């Protein structure tokens, strides 16, 4: 892929779009950026990019732009079925995503991790393990660092660890990781993918260009992941909480490797800092990836035992008057939020709600199992969740308009020995720019409770 002296339009002016634009500029492309929002939303960003002399287009898309384009690079949040994108393809414009653009110029081998839940934790842990054996390791992707920001710094002996979303996988063509991982599959982003089958197929694309010399890590306990094995050309390495698989498994509170005629205990969960059974799966996936990278067992163990988790994922955020507060803002779908509930060991006041992604909340509400004493709802989905909760026999519900109100209500309800958990089960985009902004506000609000 050569963009030098080509006309490239970047669609979407968020983190990955800006990274793509800078990369194309450095590679000698004539680069423009389009975003459907008003120019006023981006004045500060435009000022910060003044040295690049990009052309900018905002609002309704001008299809005259398609006449001169060679490439169109989509940010992950941009649906591929938008009319102007379909017209671009029909005109012969090469339409790719930011991940595909970066891959074309990446010199390092790639570890790519996807799945509905656990991606960020697993990616972060693998990043720590890889850094312990290779200082030329970059951690990129959906975790918050655009691949295009660092790709020109990659080296042949280096490693790229990438968290990859279904949105990013929709726009790949040749992207081929040395090791891929599909952690689990549950309903998510149906507002974008329309059907669960489409969503699963998008995730499966992470293996699309792999061959028998590559590896794919799969969750044996997830029947949907297990069923994918026949469609994958890479070597399969399993992880399981229930069975002694070829790969990594869990038994007697210990994580055990059973791979290539090696059978060895890696670490007891007593030596692990992460809360929740779901994190056992994340750690097993990280061990399986490490096996494929020939990382010594002692380094794997040391990195796991020192790893304390990621921000916004069941993050202990403070204690006020004997009440512990946990920030699980990254739980942007019901399945992730179920794992947050399961990790709680005290009576819990739960704060939830946000943008509607077309999810069903029944299983999540049934997981409360007398652990949740009150449910405080805000955001676009508050009435939808309330209706589902009542239908499922839970009626201790409070409706508020803002996260600020929710935290104050929770502080009034919670008693000494209780926990307050922000675990929204929804995306943040109805009221916040990101789940990080939502989680940061939650943590800031906790500090205002201290008197």
Question: What does it look like?
Answer:
With 451 residues, the chain is α/β, with parallel strands linked by helices. It has three domains: 7-98, Rossmann fold (3-Layer(aba) Sandwich); 106-306, UDP-N-acetylmuramoyl-L-alanine:D-glutamate ligase; 315-448, Protein-Tyrosine Phosphatase, Chain A (Alpha-Beta Complex), CATH 3.90.190. It has 17 helices and 20 strands. The strands form three sheets. It has a nine-stranded mixed β-sheet. Strands 15-16-20-17-18-19 form a six-stranded mixed β-sheet, with helices on both faces. Strand 7, helix 6 and strand 8 form a beta-alpha-beta unit. Helix 5 (119-133) runs parallel beside helix 11 (277-292).
Summarize this structure briefly.
With 451 residues, the protein is an alpha/beta fold. It is built from 17 helices and 20 strands.
């Amino acid at each position: 892929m050569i963009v030098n002296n080509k006309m490239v339009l970047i669609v979407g002016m968020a983190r990955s779009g800006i990274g793509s634009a800078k990369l194309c500029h450095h590679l000698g492309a004539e680069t423009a950026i389009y975003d459907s929002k008003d120019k006023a939303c981006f004045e500060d960003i435009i000022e910060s990019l003044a040295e690049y002399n990009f052309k900018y287009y905002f609002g309704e898309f001008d299809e005259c732009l398609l006449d001169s384009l060679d490439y169109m690079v989509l940010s992950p949040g941009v649906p591929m079925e938008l009319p102007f994108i379909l017209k671009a393809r029909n005109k012969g414009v090469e339409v790719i995503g930011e991940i595909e653009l970066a891959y074309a110029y990446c010199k390092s081998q790639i570890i790519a991790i996807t799945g509905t839940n656990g991606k960020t934790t697993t990616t972060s842990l693998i990043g720590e393990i890889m850094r312990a054996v290779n200082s030329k390791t970059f951690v990129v992707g959906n975790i918050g660092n655009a691949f295009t920001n660092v790709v020109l710094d990659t080296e042949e002996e280096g490693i790229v660890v990438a968290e990859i979303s279904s949105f990013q996988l929709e726009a790949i063509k040749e992207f081929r990781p040395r090791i891929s991982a599909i952690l689990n599959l549950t309903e998510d982003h149906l507002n974008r993918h329309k059907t669960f089958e489409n969503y699963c197929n998008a995730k499966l694309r992470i293996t699309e260009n792999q061959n028998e010399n590559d590896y794919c890590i799969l969750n044996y306990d997830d029947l949907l992941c297990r069923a994918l094995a026949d469609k994958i050309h890479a070597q399969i390495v399993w992880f399981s909480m229930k069975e002694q698989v070829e790969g990594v498994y869990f038994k007697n509170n210990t994580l055990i490797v059973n791979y290539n005629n090696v059978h060895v205990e890696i670490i007891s969960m007593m030596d692990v800092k992460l809360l929740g059974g779901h994190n056992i799966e994340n750690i097993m996936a990280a061990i399986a990836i490490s096996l494929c990278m020939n990382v010594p067992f002692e380094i794997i163990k040391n990195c796991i035992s020192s790893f304390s988790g990621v921000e916004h994922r069941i993050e202990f955020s403070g204690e006020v008057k004997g009440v512990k507060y946990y920030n699980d803002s990254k739980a942007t779908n019901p399945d992730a939020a179920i794992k947050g509930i399961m990790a709680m060991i005290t009576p819990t006041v739960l704060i939830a709600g946000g943008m509607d992604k077309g999810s069903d909340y029944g299983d999540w509400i049934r997981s409360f199992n007398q652990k949740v004493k009150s449910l405080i709802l805000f955001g676009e989905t508050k009435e939808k969740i309330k209706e589902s909760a009542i239908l499922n026999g839970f009626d201790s519900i409070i409706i508020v308009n803002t996260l600020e109100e929710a935290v104050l209500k929770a502080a009034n309800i919670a008693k000494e020995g209780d926990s307050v958990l922000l675990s929204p089960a929804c995306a943040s985009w109805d009221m916040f720019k990101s789940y990080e902004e939502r989680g940061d506000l939650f943590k800031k609000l906790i500090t205002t409770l201290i008197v």
